[in-house]
Amino acid sequence: MKIIIFLLFTVLGLAGCGGKESAEQAAQDESQKMLMMDEVTAIDELPSFLKEGLSKEEQDELRKQIMPTLDDGLTPEERFQKLRRDAEAGDPDAQNALGAMFYTGEAVSRDAAGNIMDYDPVSAAGWFFRAAEKGHAEAQFNLGLLYLHGDGVEKDIETALKWFTQSAEQGNADAQNNLGVIYLTGEGVEQDSDEAIKWFEKAAEQGNEEAKENLEAVRSGQN
């Protein structure tokens, strides 16, 4: 039985790189950490690993999702600074978008030694956490993925499940699909096919293709 595990950010592909700092700690240490980092905004080009397999139209759409204000007349640097100000002022949309930029490398970070980091999952986790605490469904989904993989935070399936559930209950189809996978495989929870099907159905009703395929695979396996 083939089960497709959909593990994408809402706006970006997820790469694997473990971390040991919790999102809570990342959020608390963000201001101190920024003293060690030189942040700039990259040119309006997607990183190469995000472009792979995408048409020009799909790349343009992804770029708009990552930075929805590309047509605002601002330079990349001005746009990043505005987003950062909005995030620091508590705007959850800006906080989630800033987290996505740190994860993709769209916002470039330097470590304490001054070396440029390809991407910064710890800072991403901190910003996702701030937005997730405010009930931002996409940030909750993104944070759940980081906990699922231990990327920028300590791997914790239980915490991933918590954030996926909060996001799914708000109607996020990707979180619903991931919940279905977790319950189906029993990773970190008691295996529950009925619960898995419930979440696959909710996601499939919203047109989520991965959930449709997962649902079909589950039902085929039951026959």
TrEMBL record:
- A Pfam short name: Sel1
PANTHER family in alphabetical order: ERAD-ASSOCIATED E3 UBIQUITIN-PROTEIN LIGASE COMPONENT HRD3 (PTHR11102:SF160), SEL-1-LIKE PROTEIN (PTHR11102)
Q: What Gene3D superfamilies does the record point to?
A: Tetratricopeptide repeat domain (1.25.40.10)
Which InterPro entries does this UniProt record tie to the protein? Sel1-like, Sel1_AlgK, TPR-like_helical_dom_sf
Native source organism of the sequence: Nitrosomonas halophila
Could you identify this protein by its name? Sel1 repeat-containing protein
Say which domain of life the source belongs to: Bacteria
Question: PROSITE patterns this protein is in?
Answer: PROKAR_LIPOPROTEIN
Q: What is the lineage of its organism?
A: Bacteria, Pseudomonadati, Pseudomonadota, Betaproteobacteria, Nitrosomonadales
